[in-house]
Specification:
This protein has 382 residues and is mainly β. It has helices at 2-19, 233-238, 275-288, 363-366, and strands at 25-39, 54-66, 73-83, 90-102, 107-113, 133-135, 143-145, 149-156, 161-169, 179-188, 191-200, 204-215, 218-227, 246-257, 260-269, 302-310, 318-327, 332-343, 347-358, 370-381.
């Protein structure tokens, strides 16, 4: 309820500066998809319910942008989605609604609901605690980001250094549980570094970091976070002994050349579960059905991922992408393949496929109700 009043008041307050802008831009996109899901018979939770293998839905997204450098900037992003398969769900989402006001050309204040996009890794967005990207099944929701309430003051100290302080609160939490933080980013020629300090709920501290070095078509990078405590749900439930300072880090190499890109990446999580801990969690889920604590791709200790993409695949309008994230702890993985065709820069058609594989005790087999999904989609943007 608080966010409804906040949104109404916020829209009223920005009406005057927004209406004064001449360079406003409106974007609209429409999408629809149909798909099939094959049941995973190794899923840890057995059910007598009839398996629904059909998925379909449609939706649209409206974005209003305005402003420019050293001027008041604003963005409103509204999305509507409805699904036709079981369960039938329709909902509106206010993805973003913020205004950015400059005090000088290099000092500006952002207030509102905004996604923050930073982090270098392909598969694990460890360093971003404000709005980390989340991999979601299906093409249209492949990369989701949470957009919390945000107040941020930025200062561009020079062409090489920028810094900021910020306060944010997740939609599920009240502002009295707000989090505070600061960041500094450095860019010197082909070297980049970012460090992010978090003090969450005014109780726990965390430090995120990004670092990369560009060498012609190759880029070496690392992204990670150091945390004061273990925040895994099952670790707290079972009182596992891996409490204390925790480190999560992804490091990899990225190659880009003309219309092609490739990434090889390794990730380590000190708070991931070992073999005996995974067995206890499996038994708990079987006996109680408590699977809410499982977080895909953030369950084990060691992961290896690769990705290959081509924006021109045998044709200037044909795109192709394949990626595979492998859990080295329980020997399983998730393979994704996508093919898309762009028609006149407005209409896109495509097909995506996701396949989970591995040993029966792999996280991708135990905790996923489906083993294979394929989706065909179409989208229109203008």
């Amino acid at each position: 309820m608080f966010y409804k009043y906040f949104a109404a008041l916020f829209i009223f307050l920005i009406t005057i500066p927004v209406s004064a802008q001449n360079n406003k831009k409106i974007n609209f996109s429409f999408f629809a998809y149909n798909g099939y899901m094959a049941k995973n018979y190794d899923f840890v939770m057995k059910s007598n319910k009839k398996w629904n293998d059909y998925i379909s839905g449609m939706g649209g997204q409206l974005t209003l942008l305005g402003g420019g450098f050293a001027k008041t900037q604003f963005e409103m992003d509204l999305r509507y989605v409805t699904t036709f398969s079981n369960p039938n769900v329709s909902y509106f989402t206010l993805r973003q609604l913020y205004i950015q006001v400059p005090f000088t050309d290099y000092v500006f204040l952002t207030i509102g609901k905004r996604e923050k996009k930073f982090g270098l890794a392909e598969f694990h967005n460890f360093s971003n605690r404000i709005s980390p990207k989340i991999n979601v099944l299906g093409h249209m929701e492949k990369l989701q980001r949470q957009a919390p309430g945000l107040i941020q003051l930025d200062w561009i100290a020079s062409s090489d250094i920028s810094t900021a302080v910020f306060l944010w609160s997740n939609p599920s939490q009240k502002w009295k549980y707000a989090n505070i933080g600061a960041l500094t980013e450095l860019q010197f020629n082909n070297f980049y570094s970012g460090i992010y300090f978090y003090y969450e709920r005014l109780k726990f501290w965390l430090v995120g970091f990004n670092i990369s070095q560009q060498m012609s078509s190759l880029r070496l990078y690392s992204e990670g976070i150091v945390k004061e405590h273990d925040e895994q749900y099952y670790a707290q439930l079972f009182n596992f002994k891996n409490k204390g300072i925790q480190l999560s880090i992804s490091t990899g190499i990225d190659y880009e050349w003309k219309y092609y890109s490739a990434t090889l990446e390794y990730a380590f999580r000190s708070e991931g579960f070992n073999g005996s801990e995974r067995s206890k969690i499996e038994n708990l889920v079987k006996n109680t059905g408590n699977i809410l604590g499982y977080n895909q791709n953030y369950y084990g200790k060691d992961y290896l991922g690769f990705n290959f993409g081509a924006s021109r695949f045998f044709s200037p309008k044909l795109g192709f992408n394949i990626s595979n994230l492998i859990s080295l702890d329980s020997l399983g993985g998730q393979l994704e393949i996508g093919l898309s065709y762009l028609h006149r820069e407005k209409v896109a058609f495509g097909i995506d496929a996701v396949y989970n594989y591995g040993k029966k005790n792999s996280e991708y087999m135990l905790y996923s109700p489906y083993q294979f999904q394929t989706t065909v989609f179409a989208s229109l943007s203008f």
